[in-house]
Amino acid sequence: MILKLIQNVFLGLLLLLQMQAMAQSSSFSTYMNPVIPGAHADATLTKIGKDFYTTGSSFSPTPKIYHSTDLVHWEVIAQPVSATWPLYGKGKGDGCWGGHLVYYNNKYWDFFGHWGTMYFTTANQPEGPWSTPVAMKCPAAVPGLGMDNSIFIDDDGLWYLLVKNGQENNWILQLGSDGQPKGNILDLRWINPAPTYPFVWAEGPTMWKYKGYYYYTFALHAGGGQKVFRSKQLVADQAAWENLGDFFNEADPKKNQALFTGPNHCSPVIMLDDSTSWVISHSYMFANGGEWQGTGRQGLLSRVRYNAAGKPVADYPINESRTAPRLPSSGIPWMVPHADFFNTTKLNPEWSVLGYAAQLPWSLSARPGWLRLSPKNQHNTIIKPDAEHNYTLITRLDFAPKASTDEAGIRIMTGLQTLSACVFSTANAAGEPTIKFSFNTTSYEVPNTSGNIVWLKLSRYNHVLSGFYSTNGFDWVQVGNTIDVKSMDVEQAEQNAWTGNYQGLYVKGLAADFDLYVYRDAYTSILAECPANQWGTTRSVPGSGTIVLDQIHTNDWALYAGVEFGDADYPVKAVSFEANASSLSSTGVIEVWLDSLQTGRKIAECPITSTGSLTTYKNF
Hints:
Elements: E1 3-9, E2 14-16, E3 30-31, E4 46-48, E5 51-54, E6 65-68, E7 75-78, E8 97-104, E9 107-114, E10 117-123, E11 134-135, E12 150-153, E13 159-164, E14 170-175, E15 181-187, E16 203-210, E17 213-221, E18 224-231, E19 241-246, E20 270-271, E21 277-283, H1 287-290, E22 298-306, E23 312-314, E24 322-323, E25 362-363, E26 371-373, E27 381-385, E28 390-398, E29 407-413, E30 420-427, E31 433-439, E32 442-447, E33 453-461, E34 464-470, E35 476-478, E36 483-484, H2 486-489, E37 502-508, E38 512-518, E39 520-521, E40 526-527, E41 533-535, E42 538-540, E43 548-552, E44 557-561, E45 563-564, E46 578-583, E47 588-594, E48 601-608, E49 618-619
Parallel strand pairs: 2-44, 2-47, 39-45
Antiparallel strand pairs: 1-40, 1-43, 1-46, 3-24, 4-5, 5-6, 6-7, 8-9, 9-10, 10-11, 12-13, 13-14, 14-15, 16-17, 17-18, 18-19, 20-21, 21-22, 22-23, 25-26, 26-38, 27-37, 28-33, 28-38, 29-30, 29-37, 30-31, 31-32, 33-34, 34-35, 34-36, 41-44, 42-43, 46-49, 47-48
């Protein structure tokens, strides 16, 4: 079957919801990058038993610990540092730099940097609770502990902090059982000496061991380049270390067409029981003139292979499906923002706040089943990474604005917090209830005919946003016209505060209650061109200029993650599926599955007949 599909209305081709699926299926045997969409800079990776954990730099947003059982599907399980930590800071580059979770001495440790000082927190389980951060003491011989550091645990049980502080200062410090530097100090300043700085910054060092060799790798800078050295002995002597050159397969012929063209800041390489090796790195989406660079440095998974000489070579993150690790998924869904109905006593750790907050701006107990968000100094928002190019955000809120300075609604914003797109409830200059949709200098408003309780919707179709409101969550009224927000999605000044763009809920002036947050609504069109994962399809632009999901044949599939079908708070039910497609075959069928092919549940079939031409599209 040859099928072209423009968009899936209501459900999508293949949907992944959280259902138990312990064995691999055809839709779990391959993956596409990024596996952690959105800002996941300076990634680390740790294998503890059958579980995997990754952390990294969060900067101003609260840091997160991600957990996986298959290295492809990730979930946020904890925040090792609270925004209430007094030293967290309020600046746009404050917060946590780097981050590495390890298991040592029968407890979990998370090490991170904060403005040149290293800290650690500890917990009895990775979900927490986590202790108050403890500052690490810098030995007199070392000019500061820096940031973007990592931990290495040797076969003999000794553990070490890999230090980077400034361009020329690379060090390795042995740690004592209390997590403080104690013992050997290895001076590796020969790696990147002044004044030439041959490896630019030689930053974000990590290390692992393979067949008796110590492998030491580092990034040239934040946006690309990764080198690797190795030694038979863990010593400071330059003569003992061999420069193996590039870590990634820079000779991949498809490199120049890749969406992610600067993978670096790698985690330590981990080996599975089947002897395959894997690494997580980050990269901006530099392709197409950096039109999506504002989304930040995203989390990429690559397999690592050692050549005959023992050099590790990581797969370049090209735009193709890769064979996934042969590991169980355990029902963890694809890592996109997920719907939240605020029916728990603790806020899901997917949500972050920005910077130090003496008192957290939210409450789940003030009105059970609702999130109360209050403006507390600068803290008036909860956020999740904004990375995908198509979604529909929905919320229902209870808000009584008194003035035009009172706002509550949905917001997408840059890491710098200088640009934001919002659909929100407010009042006009006369104090009358109003719904507004705005970005930069463009603003639309309509009278709020719903009252204090109102539904809001913000839809993204690539760089174009649309704002809506509703009295019942079914019948939507568009607020003004669409708005192009490409200026927010491209590269931002000051590296976008070293992070990426975010989406979430916010208030100004007065507190508001939010009943739910939907990330991808099943009842709003889903662009077929934007799957989170796929097999066998391509994304192309035919003569019409419309981007389509192309070259679809028998048993090809595409996955759209985070789709919400309904809940007690969002009482809707799917009764049909519709696709807009073209085909030369009259025997095609689109199957719609929840979770995974074979192990999931098929909920719909959509027969596709010939449209007479691949440039003629019809609704089926």
